[in-house]
Amino acid sequence: MLKANGETIAENRRARYDYFIEETLEAGLVLEGSEVKSLRHGRASIVEAHAAEKQGKLYLFNVNIEEYKGANQFNHDPKRPRLLLLKSREIRKLISGIQRQGVTIVPLSLYFNKQGYIKVKLGLAKGKKKADKRETIKERDWQRQKARSLKEG
């Protein structure tokens, strides 16, 4: 099934469980043609992905975009680093954020925007401790229970 404009390709649902998301922003990606074709079919995973600085630019590492069968010999490397397209002001802001202790950049979702361009939603994130994760689970369970009781009564 082909993905249309405005549809989500991949989502990192685990990120909000493992990290406190301090800030989010949207970035473009430099992709090859076979990668775009594969993304149109929804064949990508950003679960293990993260962004880091390399030579003054930000790259997205460990994004797995499966090979496109129709590309034959002109296929791409599924886990290659992909350049993030951001304004220089945003790059400086994110790099200074990374240099703080315990802060990282994680992709939250990969999607097609309304114009049909592939965008990634990045989150400046700080890792959670086990107690924080347990608190997140309790809060989620409480919200579910509250919703159920409102629905019933």
Quaternary: single chain
Whole-number mean pLDDT? 87
| Cα-to-Cα separation, first versus last residue | 40 Å
Count of distinct strands: 9
- Percent of sequence in beta strands: 25-35%
User: Looking across the biggest beta sheet, what order are the strands in?
Assistant: 1-8-9-2-7-5-4
Low-confidence stretches: none
Top-tier CATH class: Mainly Beta
CATH level-two architecture: Beta Barrel
Secondary-structure content class: alpha+beta
Order of helices and strands: EHEHEEEEEHEEH
Which overall shape is indicated by the principal axes computed on the Cα atoms?
globular
Total helical segments = 4
Give the proportion of residues in helices: 25-40%
Largest sheet: 7 strands, antiparallel
Spatial extent as radius of gyration:
18 Å
How many domains make up the 3D coordinates?
Answer: 1
Throw out a few tags for this protein.
153 residues; alpha+beta; Small Protein B, Chain: A; seven-stranded antiparallel beta sheet; two-stranded antiparallel sheet; 4 helices; globular
